[in-house]
Write a structure and sequence with these properties.
Blueprint (H helix, E strand, L loop, with lengths): L1 H11 L10 H11 L7 E8 L11 E5 L10 E4 L2 H9 L4 E3 L1 H8 L7 E4 L4 H5 L2 H4 L17 H11 E5 L5 E8 L4 H17 L10 E8 L5 E3 L6
Parallel strand pairs: 3-4, 3-5
Antiparallel strand pairs: 1-7, 1-8, 2-6, 8-9
């Protein structure tokens, strides 16, 4: 633990914790301070001026990051007939219907995202207790219940990130890896923030984007000046 403490302390000496940096400068700092022996994930934490207890202030959606997430996403698709082949052609890792549902009910969960055609939700619905707690339940609000299976699979494989505001008003989302260039990270971050601005609830009062912080898996948080976006 002492070794990690020294590394974090050294990293914090490289920047001012109270300063709000531009997206480009913040991403450069986060990349510089990511000193772990593995390729750290870079995440964004966005504090929104909403009250998620009210349904009309719930912020939920998805964004396809221009440079992806740096992670290989294994996609499972529930579809039949032509849509099954469409899913396979688009690069889905696992495709099926009742057979796929039975496999999941037996405990198999070797995938990262789930997509389904609307006519398959009767089958998928029975898996709610398994998929729901793991954030794997398909949902039409984020585009994972759709007949446009090819597009949904392609976007997911390309770096589609889903997000949902927490009870505290915070959105957590991955924007890449420490091995990305600062420009790639900044462009991914800007895509996320611009998407959040488009989803601003009409009933939200006061400052909408209150605080944006980015950090790598093992690194300290760096504040981002979001005024130009919000």
């Amino acid at each position: 633990m002492a070794k990690v403490g020294k590394r974090i302390t050294k990293a914090r000496e490289q920047y001012d914790r109270e300063t709000y940096y531009s997206a480009a400068d913040a991403c450069e700092l986060v990349k510089k301070m990511a000193g772990a022996k593995f390729d750290e994930t870079v995440d964004a934490s966005v504090n929104l001026g909403v009250d998620p207890r009210h349904a009309d202030q719930m912020v939920r959606g998805a964004v396809v990051l221009p440079h992806g997430t740096g992670k290989t996403i294994r996609v499972a698709v529930f579809a039949r007939g032509e849509k099954e082949q469409e899913a396979r052609d688009a690069g889905a890792d696992f495709v099926g219907s009742d057979d796929l549902a039975a496999k999941i009910q037996e405990g198999w969960l070797d995938f990262d995202a789930t997509i389904a055609t609307p006519d398959m939700m009767g089958v998928v619905g029975r898996l709610g207790r398994v998929l729901g707690p793991r954030g794997l339940m398909p949902n039409p609000k984020v585009g994972t219940v759709t007949f446009d299976i090819g597009k949904a699979v392609s976007e997911m494989k390309a770096g589609r990130v889903e997000f949902r505001v927490e009870k505290t008003g915070i959105i957590q989302a991955t924007i890449g890896k420490a091995s990305f260039t600062p420009t790639q990270l900044a462009e991914n971050l800007n895509s996320l923030l611009e998407t959040l601005v488009r989803l601003k609830p009409a009933t939200a009062k006061g400052t909408y984007m209150r605080r944006v912080t980015i950090s790598s898996t093992m690194g300290p948080g760096v504040r981002v000046d979001s005024s130009s976006i919000a």
